[in-house]
Amino acid sequence: MTNGMLPDQNYVTSLDEIIWGGTLVAVTMVLHALGMLTILRVNVRLKNYLGEKVQLFFVGVGTLILASWMILVVHLVEVAVWAAFFLWKGAFANGSLCYYFSLNEYTTVGSNYSLPQHWRLLEGMIATAGLLTFAWSTGVLLTLAQDFQEQQMELFKRHREKGRDKK
Fold it and tell me: Which of 84-106 are b and which e, b meaning 16 or more Cβ less than 10 Å from the residue's Cβ?
């Protein structure tokens, strides 16, 4: 920024930015794929381990909470990769600031900080990575929530049918 308000009119996107940004988005997606598949596998193993108990309301909600926590951890690890890159490239003074900036950009909240001019394109690329991974996470959580809801509705239906049989 030249005067604190307007972007530098001489800024030119570099191939270096595009390559690093593309690489970081790819790494983010690989980590996310590993994380989401792990969450789905853990859910299957929990269902097998718990057997009929998985149909209990609080057990089902508990598995959704566990999946949510695991999704959060996956996102935080992905943000750490971006923060480590920014720290390595000297974009900010310390790791905490790199992580704070990365988390705010990844969630598209934005921050009061900006990357050095020669890395400016990565602000949009980290937000894009965040949007892609949040959409994927939402899909995984909706899959698990749909399964939970179907189980609960089936139990409700069986309970109603038992009540009718008694009459």
Answer: ebbbeeebbeeeebbbbbbbbbb
Q: What pTM value is reported for the model?
A: 0.86
Which single residue is written with the structure tokens 């809801």? 149
- 28/89 Cα distance (integer angstroms): 18
Query: Are 77 and 35 a contacting pair, CB within 8 Å?
Result: yes
Tokens of 162: 């038992």
CB neighbour list of residue 68: distance below 8 Å, 6 or more residues apart: 141
User: What is the 3-class SS of 19-49, one letter each residue?
Assistant: HHHHHHHHHHHHHHHHHHHHHHHHHHHHHHH
pLDDT tens, residue by residue, 13-58: 889 999 999 999 999 999 999 999 999 999 999 988 887 777 788 8
Q: What number is the average pLDDT over the span 55-69?
A: 90
The two structure tokens encoding residue 98: 């790199």
> Which residues does 57 contact at the CB level (< 8 Å), separation at least 6?
152
